[in-house]
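User: I'm new to structure prediction. If I give you an amino acid sequence, what do you actually give back? Let's try with this one:
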Amino acid sequence: MSFFYEHFSDKENFFLLTEFDNCWVNSHFHKSYEFVYVKRGRCEIFVNDAVDEIDEGDIFCVPSYCVHYLKSIGDTEILTMVFSESYFDDFIKDRGGDFFPPVLKNKTNNKRIFEFMKDFHDKTGDRGGDSYLRRKIFIDSFLALMLEYYAVAPVAVSKRSQNLCDILAYIDTHFAEKLDLKTLAEKFGYNQKYFSAYFNKYVGSNITSYINTIRFNNAKYLLENTDKSVSEVAAECGFESLATFYRIMKKYSVSIAAESRKEI
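Assistant: Good question. You get back a string of structure tokens that encode the predicted 3D arrangement of the chain. For your 264 residues, that looks like this:
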């Protein structure tokens, strides 16, 4: 099984509350927290190294750094909420590292939770409006409502999943530095040959390609959302030269366009 670090949802104060039809998300993890309510149909999920199914009226709860996926079985509709760690600090202070069970099946309680989420979405939209304070109050109220109906417990994470999450999180934090197979293998205590095979098997990409993907995504974000020059962006994202920057940006832009045409 391969998975990836969905780093875009870990931006500061990230918030998303939106509806999806026939969702199909491959294995991934993020520092953010996620809650999914199944409005219609059935979905296959992967969590805690096990496959399960959730039905209409169930809630899927995903803690930080938990490898998971969600795949629709037939025609489905879900309401998904993802928010960054910054919104979760009060819950952590109150409950430590505990979290809700992966699947919550009390349909009556879940319907009330869904109606609370849907009401906020109807008033503020997918991004929760312009006010961080309003989003924070909503999430605190949402978590308080969850605690009325469900107990929390320590989160069980497999050693392999945690190890891979640590590696990918390290890459995401240090992508602007000099990173290569040798550096990462030494950092995490592997010989290079084993580490390369291990990374390829479980992440589904070689190390160089994965690092370049992270650099590409961050460079694209900076180019689209800041006034920084190309030279500044290239240096900030860890590209050795402008020639390398242009080569990687062209390569990955073409790859994304090709994948988009396939989906159409």
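You can read the tokens as a compact description of the fold. Here is one thing that stands out. Confidence is low (pLDDT under 50) at residues 256-264.
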